[in-house]
Amino acid sequence: xxxxxxxxxxxxxxxxxxxxxxxxxxxxxxxxxxxxxxxxxxxxxxxxxxxxxxxxxxxxxxxxxxxxxxxxxxxxxxxxxxxxxxxxxxxxxxxxxxxxxxxxxxxxxxxxxxxxxxxxxxxxxxxxxxxxxxxxxxxxxxxxxxxxxxxxxxxxxxxxxxxxxxxxxxx
Length: 171
Ligand SMILES: CC(C)(COP(=O)(O)OP(=O)(O)OC[C@H]1O[C@@H](n2cnc3c(N)ncnc32)[C@H](O)[C@@H]1OP(=O)(O)O)[C@@H](O)C(=O)NCCC(=O)NCCS
Prior knowledge:
This protein is an alpha+beta fold. The chain is built from six helices and seven strands, in the order βαααβββαβαββα. The chain is globular, with a radius of gyration of 15 Å.
């Protein structure tokens, strides 16, 4: 970052969730990031759902929470998913998500011996898909869902080798 502040990744605490819930900039983004929740996203619901996630992490910049991610479906020695990846709209296109995903890949490899990182992204989330494509993710599956308005939605599953992501996060 060019303005003298450092981007820091640290474990999320309950007090962070009031900022985390506001990272998606509108209702559609909130669905992409927290599809299992209700809208508006509630701190108590976030705190409850994060109990089943591992390495729940915030990116902090200049004293504010600017990014969020965690791990789930961890298969020791094989793979895991990175979930709820989101970055504050005022800090996008500055490499925060790339570096946060790199940090999550590092935790997955050193903590659980994971070789592949998986993500799921809704088909109408072009920004998300372009982000994952840029980082070298490959699609391998699709899963029909319903959105919050009970309209059809399609979840695309993608994966990428853990080491490559870790290295890209350090650039
Ligand atoms: C998707 C998201 C996490 C990307 O965060 P970010 O910090 O802006 O991403 P980065 O700056 O690390 O982007 C890395 C690269 O991805 C690609 N990329 C990221 N956002 C993009 C966009 N809006 N349009 C096109 N390409 C994009 C670019 O190639 C970018 O590199 P560049 O800026 O040097 O061209 C962020 O837009 C977001 O939080 N969106 C809403 C929530 C969401 O969709 N999360 C993903 C759930 S599946």
